[in-house]
Design a protein that fits this description.
The protein has two helices and 22 strands. It is mainly beta. InterPro entries: Allantoicase, Allantoicase_dom, Galactose-bd-like_sf.
Length: about 400
């Protein structure tokens, strides 16, 4: 059972919106089924960008809308769709966005959820791109295997409230510690919704992992998360641990140019730039473990890649992590174990390195990735093996207020 969420309208965006959108197409979210896609397909719900409006744009079926919009229902029932989460895990809250649906948004909605084991998910035929159509009897028959009518309710039937035409968010917190893999969005009886954001953290079933094969211990899909950073002017560090390869520079971490760079740059004997400052990001691993291989990918960063980087690891309890967040990660140097020494980077390239600490006793919970002097990285992958040691107690509510102002500068 889960507690019923509070009213949907908030004075400001709640803290859970800082977490990963687990349903987004950018992390592999997928629409499996929709009862109707007459005016606009359900795939629009999980677009990663914000909804837009084209005043004079029409399709052969009616007004072009950037969301999911069903026809005006003239038969019994209501409309609904099924989403397979790209990041499967703990859901902390929803944003049901009805921006630009000023006269045709769905009056009410509810959200259900289920958790399926990977090998027990029925095969659902691909939908393809569609408009002007309703689900076929064959599609209804296939989706019936999921028994979605019986799924748990995370949000009961609730009235949606419009805000400003271009920004109309309805937020719903979720108090559940269960792992979820699928979402059912019900709208009553019909209408439109621009976006559905499903915010939370990934969670992997580590007991089912192959003990002989290394896993990416920092990926956002398994629960890795950035818990501190020095600068996010052009992109957040969480982008580096995203699902799949980067799609563009916007899908990586990129800082502003440091203003303390010398007027004339010089190298040391190893070709490393001699600069006073650096930028950094700290990540909590999805599971304490031993890192054996490090991948640093600068794809798309051709004229703005870092000159060099290094990686360090440490062991912290939850309380120690919370202290470090408050102290902006001013952790004594001796606490960090070097995993990768200062290393020269190249543009638009995947770099593979062996970790310096391969011994089994070198279990870590957090890593600090440092770039010098500034620039962008598209992906950070930390392959290794999870440890049975777990110092992080489960959280009722995750610590999320770790943001550092984009202009903050720190030397480590």
């Amino acid at each position: 059972m889960v507690d019923s969420p509070k009213e949907g309208k908030w004075a400001r965006a709640p803290d859970f919106t800082q977490l990963t959108d687990m349903a987004s197409e950018s992390v592999g979210g997928q629409i499996l089924f929709a009862t109707d896609d007459f005016f606009a397909p359900a795939e629009n719900l999980i677009k990663s960008d914000s909804p837009s409006f084209k005043e004079h744009e029409y399709t052969e079926f009616g007004k072009w809308m950037d969301g999911w919009e069903t026809r005006r229902k003239r038969i019994p029932g209501h409309d609904w769709c099924i989403i397979r989460l790209g990041v499967q895990g703990i859901i902390r809250g929803f944003d049901v966005d009805i921006s630009y649906f000023t006269g045709d948004y769905a009056p009410q909605m509810s959200i259900q959820a289920a958790c399926f084991e990977e090998d027990k998910q029925p095969e659902i035929p691909a939908r393809g791109i569609r408009m002007g159509a309703a689900a076929s009897p064959e599609e209804f028959e296939a989706i019936a295997e999921l028994k979605s009518d019986d799924w748990d309710y995370l949000v009961p039937m609730t009235e949606l409230k419009p805000g400003r035409p271009a920004s109309s968010h309805n937020y719903f917190p979720v108090n559940s510690q269960q792992r979820w893999t699928h979402i059912r969005l019900n709208i009553f009886p019909d209408g439109g919704i621009a976006r559905l954001r499903v915010y939370g953290t990934g969670q992997k079933d580590w007991t089912a992992s192959d003990s002989k094969e290394p896993s990416d211990l920092v990926t956002i899909a398994y629960g890795g998360v950035c818990v501190g950073f020095s600068n996010t002017h052009f992109g957040h560090p969480n982008n580096m641990i995203g699902v799949g390869p980067a799609k563009s520079m916007a899908d990586g971490w990129e800082t502003a140019r440091r203003l303390d760079r010398p007027p004339i740059l010089e190298n040391d004997e190893n070709g490393i730039l001699l600069v006073p400052g650096c930028e950094w990001a700290v990540f909590r691993l999805a599971h304490p473990g031993v890192i054996t291989q490090i991948e640093i990918d600068t794809k798309y960063f051709k004229g703005n890649y870092p000159d060099s980087c290094k990686l360090d690891g440490c062991i912290l309890t939850t309380l120690e992590e919370e202290d470090m967040i408050r102290q902006k990660w001013d952790l004594p140097g001796h606490k960090w174990k070097p995993l990768l020494p200062v290393t020269k980077l190249s543009p638009n390239k995947s770099h593979l390195f062996d970790s310096l600490t391969l011994e089994l006793q070198d279990v870590i919970t957090h890593v600090r990735f440092t770039i010098s002097p500034d620039g962008g990285v598209s992906r950070l992958r930390l392959k290794g093996f999870p440890s049975s040691i777990c110092l992080l107690r489960p959280r009722e509510k995750p610590m999320m207020r770790f943001s550092v102002k984009a202009g903050f500068r720190a030397n480590l």
